Amino acid sequence: MTSSHRHVLIVEDEQCIRDVLVELFETDGVQVSAAGTLEEAKRLLARHLFDLVVTDLRLGGRRDGGLQVMAAAGVLSPDATVIVLTAFPDEDNRNASIRLGATHFLEKPIALERIAELAAHAGVPTAMMPATSEVAFVGH
Predict the structure, then answer these.
(1) pLDDT tens column, 1-28
(2) Three-state DSSP class for 25?
(3) Coil, helix or strand for 55?
(4) Nearest 5°: phi and psi at 72?
(5) Which superfamily does 6-138 belong to?
(6) Do 135 and 37 touch, CB atoms closer than 8 A?
(7) What span, in angstroms and rounded, lies between the C-alpha atoms of 70 and 102?
């Protein structure tokens, strides 16, 4: 493992979206961990230091699931870039997310290219090709 090795945590309760996001980050120099529940995310955060956390705002019907992930990440991976994905982009959620350390607050569906671009700004490579003509979307 080199010092340029990056650690990414994907927290998403919808399996198909979680799989797409994991695939996006499966590339050389990146270790990807994925969680489908708040409890799994907390366990992973307690075990590893992450450079990037991508979390859904609502997890398993819990309105505050993603907020709890952000709170835990703020303590356990305080330097991580946090990208929040949500189908509920109201100002209360946005403000709470920002207070808890979210770097980016994105409304679903979101182009994978946008997530890849934000990851690149955080120094985390992705499997995306830069000259992709098709735009893939993460679901609702």
Answers:
(1) 344 689 999 999 999 999 999 999 999 8
(2) helix
(3) strand
(4) -65, -40
(5) Response regulator (3.40.50.2300)
(6) no
(7) 7
